[in-house]
Structures are given as structure tokens and as C-alpha cells.
Amino acid sequence: MAGRYGGGVFRNWKGLTVLGVLPSSVRNPGTARQVQARDVIAVISKAWSGLTAEARAQWADVAAYLTSQWQNYTNEVGTDAVIKVPRGPFGPLTALTAVHGLLQSVGVWGPHLPVVDAPVGMTGPSAPRSLSLSGDTDGLIATVTAPADWGDNATAGNIRVWVKSEDGTFFAQLATYGPAGPFTITALHSSGSGLAIPQTPGWYFFQWDAVNPECHRGTPRAVE
Question: Residue 62: helix, strand or coil by DSSP?
Fold first, then answer.
């Protein structure tokens, strides 16, 4: 049971269905990113209803792999990170949603495209090998060296670099990278606004990960 009832709302709590107070207000600004996320969820939910039992079983296998990544606290992928990703454990439908959300984040899939096949047996890339930082009056410069291994059947992919200032503001830069040599990001901008990172003293936290065409991401690395 779920949904509103009178002045309350049914919800799940520790495996039980409970009736809670309906919030008097909801902070939901409807940003561009939220709209994109809702588009993905709508398309994936519709696609899920049309999948065969065999295809759903394959996404169950992907869910098990994503859950094993999420639970590996010595080589963290999913929790306590600057880069916020879907939290596990994963089921078949949430695995399908998470993979397509990831592919959308690197610009290789959109809600107008068909869903991809389940990447059964595919593995994520290793972490990017190094990140060096420098800064002056022109801003911050990050130089990234790609992963040694992009995962099964992959020779290249995408690297996502995220930056968080100590006041909690997020900045993101996505860079597409091929198989050879390091690359340098010289213009880190806040997501969607085009404003450069403020030239103010303070701590900045960088995290970066790799995403391969087989629909998996690797372990992130961080530096401050």
C-alpha cells in the first residue's frame, strides 16, 4: 500500500507499511537535472514492463554485480563519496535505472534512445591512475591520467571530475578521454551555470571516476 490517505501518506519503514503525516510543503525546485532524471525513470519504467523474463533475469545478474561494488567498503564505489551515485543494494529494475542514468551522465544515452542490453559479465574500469592539481589567479587546473584498465572489451571511455568547495557548492566537469596519455582540464565550471570556480582561498575536494561503454563505472579517487 502506498500513496496519500486523508491527511497522511502510506510509506515503507523497515519493511513495514506505515501511515505518516503528509508533509505540509515539499522542496522540489524542478531543476534541469531533476527533469532529466524523471525522464530517465519514466522511460525505464515503461521499458521494464516490456522486457522478457530472460531479459529481467539478466538485469538481476547486473544488480548483483552493482551490489557487490556498493558493498565493497575497502574499494568504495557507491557510498560516502563526493560523486553521488545510486545507493544499493540493487534489484533488477533499480540496476536498469542506475545503468541508464550513468550512461546519460556521460552523454552516450538519452530517453529518446532504446534501452541497452544488460551488461552481463562485464566489469567496471579501474580507478584513474593519478590526479595532479595546480592553481593561480586564473583558477584551478586538474591533470588526470586514465585508468590502466577500462574493463572488459573496452579501450576507452569517459572520465568524470567533480569538485566540491568547503561551503558545499558542487562543480562538475565531464571530459571524454581516449586510450593514450594524460589530459588536462583547464576550465572547471559549475554544472549548468557556466560560472568559473570562485577565486577564493579555501579547501576544494576533487573526485574522479571512469565510465566505460559497457555501462559500468570504476572506483573513484579523491584528493583535496
Answer: helix
Closest C-alpha among 100, 131, 135 to residue 217: 100
Count CB atoms within 10 A of the CB of residue 134: 10
Sequence-distant (6+) residues with CB within 8 A of 123 are 65, 151, 152, 214, 216
The answer to whether the pTM exceeds 0.90 is no
Cβ distance 110 to 127 under 8 Å? Answer: no
Q: How far apart are CA 55 and CA 63, in angstroms?
A: 12
Identify each DSSP E strand in 37-193 by its residue range. 130-136, 139-145, 157-165, 170-177, 183-185
The pLDDT of residue 73 is above 60? no
pLDDT tens figures, 174-198: 666 655 566 676 655 444 444 445 5
